[in-house]
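Summary for the steering committee. The consortium agreed at its last meeting that each partner would contribute one worked example illustrating the joint modelling workflow. Our contribution is presented below. We chose a case with several input lines so that the handling of multiple components could be demonstrated. No manual editing was applied between input and output; the record is shown as generated.
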Amino acid sequence: MNEIFLMKLGEVVLKGANKRQFENKLRQNVRRRMKPFGNFDVYIMQSTVYVEPEDEEADVEGAWEACRSIFGVVSLCRCRPCEKNLDAIYNAVEAYLGEDLDCARSFKVESKRSDKQFPLTSIAISQEIGGRLAEAHPDCLVDVHHPEYTVYVEIRDLAAYVHGPAEPGAGGLPTGVGGRAMCLLSGGIDSPVAAYMMAKRGMEIESIHFFSYPYTSQLAKDKVLELARLVTRYSGRMTVNVVGFTEIQEAIRDNCPEEFFTLIMRRFMMEIAQRIAKQDGCGALITGENLGQVASQTMEAMTVTGAVVDIPVFMPLVGMDKEEIVTIARRIGTLETSILPYEDCCTVFTPKHPKTKPTLGQVLHAESRLDRESLIARALENVEKITVRYQDEPGL
Ligand code: ATP
Ligand code: MG
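What follows is the complete predicted structure of the assembly.
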């Protein structure tokens, strides 16, 4: 094959005894992510993942795009492998990177030799290849301090590899090493970013969405499924639990004081999410809450909503500014879908004057007329489980 991808492992290499487990997970993830693009050989050696197309049918461009969003990789590059001798290396650089050199005003060669049997030192390799390239590209000057372009030569165990500058990878930890969590996914800007951030820390993500038909429309539900699909570009395949919330919201509206509507509703969401989380092997919940953003996101409100769960609730956005969250949403590609104007069930019965500093006692009293247990049981009877993957057709 005349092109392969090399991906350098991130924090993974720092993990000592767990290193093997992390590498196995990453290899498994890369293999799974390459499947839609044809036959690729994926192996790890010397803290590097090798992704090698096995035949001409492989969709190399599609695979490359996918590799850029795999967590656990700090940097990645496309390379040309060649035999481990200077002539072969020089010819590979010319054929593979010659045009890039013609476009640059200055260059240098940087070599790394992890195969210590190779007779030349790294410096000698760089000098030799750099000298030949300088002759062949007289308009591109050697500049070892601030080159416009850098040619990399890596002498590894199996072969030599030449490539141009590497790109930053998706960072984080390989999906799966951090356990599994259930993200409460609304149609807003925040919760898809929260899911992405915890996936980046190596968590497998499942999500749950509450919808209140006919107060919220089919389009609002499709929007959430589309957001989930966009997150799976990073997290891998995801199950979305869609839970009908109409009966619960109507019961709250009819039986509870208005100032507590949102809080009581959120307590139902958390409790139902936790029940499904436990059934599905998720050890934590994730929300897009952000301190002070709305009345239900004060410390006191979080105490009241958190009181119904006994597993950790991860809120990766809790201390961020909206601007920072929007920047991430834009970068990961969820923003445009999030800002489509379909209503969320949170906005259906919004109190005019929500309580911002509730106590648990007040809220327990406010919801005391509800039969929580049977409302929750009925909601759990009709959970629709939908699997989404990035390769699916866009939903909106
Ligand atoms: P987002 O942009 O994620 O909707 P938000 O700022 O609008 O956040 P809220 O509407 O108060 O905040 O919701 C807080 C969190 O509660 C959300 O980030 C999400 O995790 C969860 N949540 C809200 N509505 C729903 C819903 N309909 N289904 C599932 N989870 C929800
Ligand atoms: Mg919202």
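Residues 261-279 form the longest helix (19 residues). The first strand starts at residue 4 and ends at 9.
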